[in-house]
Amino acid sequence: MNLTERLLHALARRGATEVFGLPGDFALALFREIERSAILPLYTLSHEPAVGFAADAAARGRGGLGVAAVTYGAGAFNLVNAVAVSYAERVPLVLLSGAPAAHEAASGYRLHHQAKTLDTQWRVFEELTVDRARLDDARTAPALIARVLDSALRESLPVYLEIPRDMPQRPCDEVPDSAAAAEPDAQALAACADELLQRLRAAQRPLLMVGVEVRRYALEAKVAELARRLAIPVVTTFMGRGLLTGHDIALRGTYIGLAGCPELADEVERSDALLLLGAIVSDTNFAVSSRRIDLRLAIQALGGQVVMGHHVYPDLPLARLVDALLERVPPGRAPPTTGLVPPSSDATPAPSNTTPQTCDATSPTAASLVPSADDTAAIVPSDIAGAVNRLMQRHGVIPLACDVGDCLFTAMDIEPTALIAPGYYATMGYGVPAGLGLQAATGRRPLVLVGDGAFQMTGWELGNARRYGWDPIVLVFNNASWEMLRAFEPDARFNDLDTWDYASMAAGMGGDGHLVRSVAELERTLAQAWATRGRFQLLDIRLAPGARSPTLTRFVEAVRRLSTGH
Ligand code: TPW
Ligand code: MG
């Protein structure tokens, strides 16, 4: 077998199920071998950012590695932002880039696609990946491939493989299987788990907040079990929305500080033992709060380390921590009525409110399960949430791919379901390619939520859906505006967009477009889109001018209040 075949088998054994790509001359041999060997299907898209977003979403949606293959320079530099979102949000994305062969590099000419030096690309991605290798020697390639791919999975971060264009067909030995992960120090693990439980027991208001690493490391079932045994309230981060759904656990909701439900925010911010499992502590997740969370009282497990108070336990993978906690809290030892406090304990009484009750961002009308009485009314974002909720009530949960803008805040009013979105790094243009990546990797038909501004960036990628048999349902929040920015800059004209006729563009890209102007049309068209399989369905939803979701409204008010100090 050759180097490409060995590489593809190694990727497949680590959970990759497809390659997304866009070729160029430095990557032609690589693409030729990917196609010829047919070890993994190859899906080409129209622009590299979408290649990266699709691969990122594929990894998020199914677990395991996501794979993006591009050419040197012009191709790879176009992926910088996509690799950045993977890094920021801890996604194991593998970037395969073609490159000049050694003899070309030695020719003395400047090579096309060369920006500064031939190593500039490597150095750019050094900043955005956790491990890298240049596969310029077939003898060393197997060990390098194994090391780099295993780094991606272990750290749940992107990696970079550079493949000179004379290498893809070179005969190559098999790539070794993943080495068993180094065992963490057993004493450190035990000390950490004991201290952690001790802190929860001593607390009056312990609370568990779950974040994206729980999904990245496939720990949802175990964390759900841990939550049941600990019998403490559970919330998700903004980014972790959708976690633990389908695991028979009563979630209190999603913490978004002042932008969300006030009671829930209060509970999180007053917790005297906030256990953050795999939660990225970012400004979007945490800073918009009236009373900043006191991280000194929190227990943070992220990125392979656990921090509580002044104690730092390095090199403790989340999976091992969860196992150690489960070993120490057997089922039935912590009944919900007494919390964590054993009957004989003289510790402070357990929190009384351990019977979880959902407290979400949802305003009373927002996610309504009955359609609005006024059918002809102009559409506001919460009508979209309501319509999606009713669709899911009829047909079961549907995975969501979501862009940045008010569509993401509106998603907080949609019943929790698998949600893929760049909730922290917040890059626009993610939603449509992510929907394609999600359907490619999981076979499930997604709903894509996207603003008109974001659609203008990557909406064209829908033109690739027909040939691969993907049929996402795309809800374009068409407000002729960069509305989220307008919320902060109300008087500027630069946030105006023209009203594009997205509905009529769909046919040219191989899908069905629907113009949606009233609540009644929304209800009817969504049902019709759901019933039509085999072609993507685009709903061009004309929003009432200036309409915003309740969460965005609260978010903007909160930011304004915090920045002006009252
Ligand atoms: C790649 C900055 C954040 S939100 C926003 C911009 C320009 C407006 C989004 O408009 P859209 O949605 O999609 O119509 P809505 O609901 O606000 O009307 N460039 C990139 N990413 C980001 N986040 C920005 C700019 C931004
Ligand atoms: Mg808009």
Task: Give a short summary of the structure.
With 566 residues, the chain is an alpha/beta fold.
Name some characteristics of this structure:
566 residues, alpha/beta, seven-stranded mixed β-sheet, six-stranded parallel β-sheet, 23 helices, 19 strands, binds ligand TPW, binds magnesium ion
Model description:
It is a single chain. 38% of the residues lie in helices and 15% in strands. The protein is of the alpha/beta class and 566 residues long. The strands form three sheets. The chain has a seven-stranded mixed sheet with strand order 9-8-7-10-11-12-13, with helices on both faces. Strand 1 (19-22), helix 2 and strand 2 form a beta-alpha-beta unit. The longest helix has 17 residues, at 186-202. Residues 335-356 and 361-366 have low confidence and may be disordered. The site of magnesium ion has 9 residues, from helix 18.
